[in-house]
Design brief:
The chain is an alpha+beta fold. The protein folds into two domains: 147 residues, no CATH class; 124 residues, Fusion Protein Consisting Of Minor Coat Protein, Glycine Rich Linker, Tola, And A His Tag, Chain: A, Domain 2, CATH 3.30.1150. The protein has ten helices and eight strands. The strands form two sheets. It has a four-stranded antiparallel β-sheet with strand order 1-2-3-4, with helices on one face. It has a four-stranded antiparallel β-sheet with strand order 6-5-7-8. Strand 7 and strand 8 form a beta hairpin. Helix 3 packs across helix 4 and helix 3 crosses helix 5.
C-alpha cells in the first residue's frame, strides 16, 4: 500500500479527481494520518480476528485482556472510518466483553469477544437491525479520507492501476509461464513452495474479504466464521514440530448433505514452506481436526449445499480460512 501522499497518482481514473481534491486539500498531516490508519489498524484488527477464530492462548489473563484492549482501539479506528460499523464494550460474569459490528467492503461481521482465563473466546452474533432513524454522518475529513483509501484498496483500485502501468511485453520476449499450485492433481506431500510469498498468505485485512467458494449461493461471513470456529475447536497444533508450525497447507474435501466430511476425499492440494515431513505432519493435523469435529456434522445451511459440498481450507499455525 503506497503512502497517502503517493496515493493520488495511483487512483483509477474515476476516483482521481476526488482523491486529489481530498488529499491535497487536507495537507500533509492528513496524508500522514491516512497512511498510518490504513497501515496500522487493519493489521491489528485482522490479527484480532485470527486470534478469536483460533481461540488463541496467551501467557496469562492479563496478556489476553491487554490484547483485547489493543483490538478494541484498532476496531474503534476502523469503526470511525467505516460507515455502519461500531464497537461496544461492557462487563458481565465473563469479565470485560467487546462486541465488534463491522461492515468492511460489503462484508458483514458481528463478533463478541472476551477472555476466558488466558484464552481469547469469541461468538458469532447475528447482524441484526440498525437504527431506522436517519442521522448525519459525523466523521472528520481526516477519518473520511482514511476510510476512502481503505475501501478503494479493498476493492482493488490500486492493484488495477498498478497493473495497467506495467510495461507491455514485446512479441519477441517469451511470456513467463505462471506458477500454479496445481489443484487438479493432489500434491501427495510435495512441497509446492514458490519464489514469492503467495497471495493467500497476505495477512492484511485489505486482502480479498470474500473467499472463493464453487457456487454463486455462497456462505455468508457469519456462516464462514461459525464453520471455521467449529473446525478450529479440534485443531491441535501442540504436537507439531517447529518446522511444521511454519508450514501452510491447503486442503480440499467433499461434504455430505448432513454436514459431515467425506473422510476419503480429504487431500492435500498445495503447501508452502517446510520439508516433506513437515508438510505431512501439518496436513495430518488438519485432516484429524476436520474428521474429529465433523463426526456429528457441521452446522451448515442445507439450502446452500451447493456452496459447501466442496470446500478448500488453508491451515497454518497463525490462521485458518476458507478459500
Amino acid at each position: 500500500m503506497p503512502l497517502a501522499f503517493a496515493v493520488v497518482v495511483s487512483f483509477p481514473v474515476g476516483a482521481q479527481d476526488l482523491g486529489r481534491s481530498l488529499l491535497l486539500g487536507l495537507g500533509s498531516s492528513a496524508m500522514e494520518k491516512g497512511g498510518e490508519l490504513i497501515e496500522g489498524a487493519p493489521e491489528k484488527f485482522d490479527d484480532f480476528m485470527k486470534s478469536t477464530v483460533e481461540g488463541r492462548e496467551f501467557s496469562s489473563n492479563s496478556a489476553c485482556l491487554g490484547f483485547l484492549q489493543v483490538s478494541i482501539n484498532a476496531g474503534t479506528v476502523m469503526a470511525n472510518i467505516l460507515s455502519f460499523s461500531s464497537v461496544k464494550i461492557f462487563e458481565d460474569s465473563r469479565g470485560p466483553v467487546a462486541q465488534f459490528r463491522m461492515l468492511i467492503n460489503g462484508e458483514k461481521l458481528h463478533v463478541e469477544a472476551f477472555c476466558s482465563d488466558s484464552a481469547m473466546k469469541a461468538a458469532i452474533l447475528p447482524w441484526g437491525s440498525g437504527s431506522e432513524s436517519p442521522r448525519k454522518v459525523s466523521k472528520s475529513s481526516l477519518d473520511a479520507v482514511a476510510g476512502l483509501l481503505l475501501l478503494l484498496e479493498a476493492q482493488g483500485a490500486f492493484d488495477r492501476e498498478a497493473s495497467s502501468s506495467e510495461p507491455i511485453q514485446s512479441a519477441e520476449t517469451p511470456k513467463p509461464k505462471p506458477i500454479s499450485p496445481g489443484l487438479s492433481e493432489p500434491a501427495k506431500g510435495r512441497n509446492l513452495e514458490t519464489n514469492g510469498v503467495p497471495d493467500e498468505l497476505d495477512h492484511r485485512l485489505a486482502a480479498p474479504t470474500a473467499p472463493y467458494l464453487p457456487s454463486e449461493a455462497s456462505l455468508s461471513p457469519e456462516e464462514k466464521q461459525a464453520f471455521l470456529l467449529a473446525v478450529s475447536a479440534c485443531w491441535n497444533v501442540g504436537s507439531l514440530s517447529s518446522e511444521a508450525l511454519r508450514t501452510t497447507v491447503t486442503v480440499e474435501m467433499a461434504m455430505k448433505p448432513d454436514g459431515t466430511p467425506i473422510a476419503g476425499s480429504i487431500q492435500l492440494a498445495s503447501s508452502f514452506g517446510g520439508s516433506e515431513a513437515a508438510v505431512t505432519q501439518a496436513f495430518e493435523a488438519a485432516r484429524r481436526s476436520i474428521i474429529r469435529c465433523g463426526a456429528r456434522g457441521f452446522q451448515l445451511p442445507a439450502e446452500k449445499f451447493d456452496a459447501w459440498k466442496e470446500m478448500t481450507l488453508m491451515f497454518n499455525a497463525e490462521r485458518m480460512r476458507i478459500e
